[in-house]
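Worked example

This section walks through a single chain of length 203. The input is the sequence exactly as stored; nothing has been trimmed or padded.
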Amino acid sequence: PMILRAAPRPTSYVSPAQLSAAAYLPLGQRLTFGATARLGVLVPLGPKNSPNPPRSHLVDRFVLGGPHSLWGFRTHGAGPREQRHTATGLPGPTTPYDSLGGEVLGAAALSLSAPLPGKLAVHSVRAQAFAAAGTLQQVRDLSAAPSLSEALGAGMRACVGAGLVAPTQFGRAEINLTHVLRKRPTDLVQRNGVQIGVTATVY
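Given that input, the structure is written out below as tokens.
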């Protein structure tokens, strides 16, 4: 059966604002240096002094993790998480964690790529090496921290890796070997460091 899903829309309580930027610089005849960055914040629309301040919903929040989002982490595997509710309502030591999303997003990546020789060049296959870092947090956690820089630093994740990437009719396909440098205990990372994925981004 065909399943149709509506695109997520902001609720009447918050408005998501996101800025993305990417730049690529040729280095010689074969190498290409790339830099990408994403910033996002959920802006409350309700009155600040209300006894019931506006709260974001899951559909509004940003997510982080996955190929070309934050390598080394599973899809939506980085950021605030909560143990799944059980039949008894009491999570156990093996109860999995679900992603809650975040209200403040910051992510950046640097990459160096080059086309491969031979038959792979016909299919535009490139080798790449990359380093990426990102953070995803709730506004209330940032407000409760002693300083903004300390809060952002505590929630920072980081990863390095290398692999192959190629454009396809479905988007950007890649296979990478990743190494997570920094994570939180509840984050979900790729087992054995091998990550395969297809994203809509083709650059």
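What to look for: The longest strand covers residues 14-27.
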